[in-house]
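Model the whole thing, not chain by chain.
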Amino acid sequence: MSSGLSVGVVGATGAVGNEILGLLLHRGWPILKLVAFGSSRSIGRPIKFGSKELAIENFDSDHNHGLDILFFATDSEVSRRFAVKSASLSTLVIDNSSAFRMEPDVPLVIPEINLGVVRPDQWLIANPNCSTIILLMAVAPLRALGRIRRILVSTYQSASGAGRDAMVELEESTRAYLNGEVFEPKVMPHPYAFNIFSHNSEIDESGYNGEEVKMILETRKILGDAEILVNPTCVRVPVLRSHSESITVEFEGPAPRIDEVRRVLSEFSGVRVVDDRERSYFPMPIDANGGGDVLVGRIRQDASNPNAISLFACGDQLLKGAALNAVQIAEGLFDRFGL
Amino acid sequence: MSSGLSVGVVGATGAVGNEILGLLLHRGWPILKLVAFGSSRSIGRPIKFGSKELAIENFDSDHNHGLDILFFATDSEVSRRFAVKSASLSTLVIDNSSAFRMEPDVPLVIPEINLGVVRPDQWLIANPNCSTIILLMAVAPLRALGRIRRILVSTYQSASGAGRDAMVELEESTRAYLNGEVFEPKVMPHPYAFNIFSHNSEIDESGYNGEEVKMILETRKILGDAEILVNPTCVRVPVLRSHSESITVEFEGPAPRIDEVRRVLSEFSGVRVVDDRERSYFPMPIDANGGGDVLVGRIRQDASNPNAISLFACGDQLLKGAALNAVQIAEGLFDRFGL
């Protein structure tokens, strides 16, 4: 890194974009220039960056704004319109949307697991789905103990996965419920106060919804294993920002010993084992919120299958599930390739 | 039934006891006499029964109070002290606690599934664990389509399963959170506002907690199948009164067709299929609350196993998960044996 980095964040006012700004500040990036891009209706609005204030700028994909790196914290449509062009101008683009994740030429990266797949000539990198990241942070380390053939996972997904407006709606609808007031959902498809519902992405003819299909396909791509079987059930729960997952992992042969599972998990960067059976203390959203680690616990031999273990994981959807993973991808590539 | 029934409810002021009173009223039981029993500190307190008021009475297990039937909506300790004695006095006793569920001589009954196991000389009947009831209402009908060898289930359990105080704590702690106030948990082991946590029953050396062990053992007893394999993960979510469950059912052979699964479920008394893929409308606590049916949806072939299907169920923990099942046991036995 020469004199510093020029960095842009597209979608800086959203929940994930805002977390990216915070991480750039707190992880001590040598920032020479920082540009926060937003939608046309937010142009000129001030946005905080540490003690400074930035004004939201308009993104023009025809030139690279002199940026070394661009984070897209936007929906697929916006990413599809702009990200490829930006990457073609030799700006490293980390895209948080699902637009390019399954493109064969676009690496889909969780740095602790598969940073090595990125080639120096690849300028567009996809950040995986939040539920996939949290799942694989808990599961990938176990490959050291045997070949994994099947994963079953039921999610407990927070509001943040649907954006800042969903987080506000969870709070507002809950307040209305407690005050005995009527609340009409505007962001979520169903009432959210003290309620849970199936993830509302579209269901295909197999009966799986879009979020679940992402978990199946992204798992195969990230683990580089086209054969691995995944059965996800994605459910939204009234939690603000951390996703939890109940996971069963079936190995090709007999399941590894539980103390071995604990060991490989606790040695894996980005995982923290929280598994205190005596105090009944296990991963919880309130402990994952604001932290970078994926918490893993309830580690046990599956009582119904000698080849399987079960566990419970919890990670901050906005951080390791989105912003932090994106920032770590960039850091990992700086380390590998320099700038 | 001669001129009417004499009925007692022990633990009438609790969440389940109160629901039993409501059901006796609304299901048109021919009540000759109704006695509400409570703990010593509630003796004499008034309790509503329709337009009337009852005074809480003290329970004396030395005589049967002239009652035909006694519902115990109490914890295991109280049930263990009193229920056997009451049943020995030829009062039909339906016990909601876990005290006698695994006793070989005590039938454990979900009426739609195994009412037939009760003999006329059995006066003490155990009501199963709420999560087990909701699970088996969704799973037992599928036995018509093939032998089931394994069940995996992750629960999304509501506050009501931990009693009325837990429901109040969920509301109060959430209100405090929204007002930026500190709240010290008194009933639950962890902060409950916008949080989820592992069911806090004690963990045994296998790594399963008490609630999960109940689901394993009670499933075997109710289905009359000592071989059936069950892997439960029990989790508390910030929902007031309905439990939800993400379920995968593995058959001995190839999984049945999904339209067949839908058919047997929709023909099963006490189950309502809620499975609208187009509108993404599936079972939710707000739709299960206050109703007697277990809602079942997300019915699909397991993408990871040709022998399995997955589904999602939701039932009112206080009703079908407790009070309603108890009342239905009594009604079923009246039908079979008269009074």
